[in-house]
User: Fold this.
Amino acid sequence: MARKHNEENERIKRHYLHFLREAKRSDTKTVDKAAEAIRRFECSTGVKPFKKFHIEQAVSFKRRLEADTNSRTGKPLAKATIDGTLRAVKAFFLWLAGQPGYKSRISYADAEYFNLNAKDARIAHTERDVPYPTIEQCRHAFNLMPVTTEIERRNKAIFAFLMLTGARDGAIASLRLKRIDLDQACVYQDARDVKTKASKTFTTWFFPVGQDYVDCFADWVGHLRRDLLFGNEDALFPKPLLKQKDGAFAVVGLSRETYSDASAIREVIKGAFVNAGLPAFAPHSFRKTLVKHGDQICKTREQFKAWSQNLGHESVVTTISAYCPVSNDRQAELIRALG
Assistant:
C-alpha cells in the first residue's frame, strides 16, 4: 500500500503554511490553494521526502497535470489551473531552498523546473471576454423570480442588492443588517466582518439602476427588522432554518446566521437566469454589467471615477482594464471613426 503521509513533509508544510499566513499575510483561500497544490505534487512522487527532491520529479509532475482531468467536468485541466498549481509549488520550493536541512539538497534553480512552457503560459494568462448579462436581461430575470415563500423573497432581494451594489458574492454572504443604511441608500463594507477582496473597507451607494430594485431590497430589510425582529448583528441574507418534520429535515424559517461561503448566493443568481431561459450568469458578471452601464451614463471623468470607487476600485484603470476592455473589432471601429 502506498504511503499517504510523510511526517517530515507534514512538519515542513505546516511551517510553510504558517509563513504564508503570518509573514506573507495571505488569506485563507490562498493558503488552502497552496496546501492543495503541494499535496498534489506529493502524491505525484508517491509521497517521497522533500529532501529527496530531484528535478525529474518536477518534470514528471508537469506531465501529470497535463494529462489530468477536472473531476467535475471530465475535461482536461485548464492551462490557468495548471499554471496556478505549478506557481504554488514553485513558491514552496523557493522557500524550502532557504530552510535549514534543505539548503544543501535543494537549490533555488531547481524551483525553475516548475515553470510552465512559454506557449502554455501565454495561453494561461490571456484575458478573454467573460459573458455578462445586459441591464435588460437582468430586469427580465428579476421580474420572473417568484416571491411565494420567505426563501424566495430573500432570493429576489439578493438579486436586487447585487444590482444595486455590484458587491462580490463573498461579501453578500457575510453581510449583517448593521452595515445597511437605507436612509443614505448605501452599504458599508467593513472588512472586519464583511468578506471583501483583499480585506478592503469601503462604502457603496446604491447604483441608479431602477426603483424596483430599491423597493424590493427595502421591503426585505423591513421584513427582517419589523416582522422577524432581526437586530443589527443578524444576517442580511440568512441561511434557512432546518428542522425535522415528518421524519425528514425541512425549511421552517430563517436562521439569524450568515453563510460561511458564497456557494448559495451563486446558486440563487444562476437559478434566476436559468428560470428566465437565459445563460446561468454568475454574480461576479454583474460587476461588468454595471461598469458597462456606468460607461454609458457617466458624462464626466469625475462621475466615472465615483462609479469606479463605488465598486471598491482605487483606480479607474482597474475598472476599465478588468471590466471594460475594447475588442479588436471595436478598436478598429473607433480608430476609423476618429478619422
About this structure: The beta strands are 180-181, 186-189, 202-205, 240-245, 248-254.
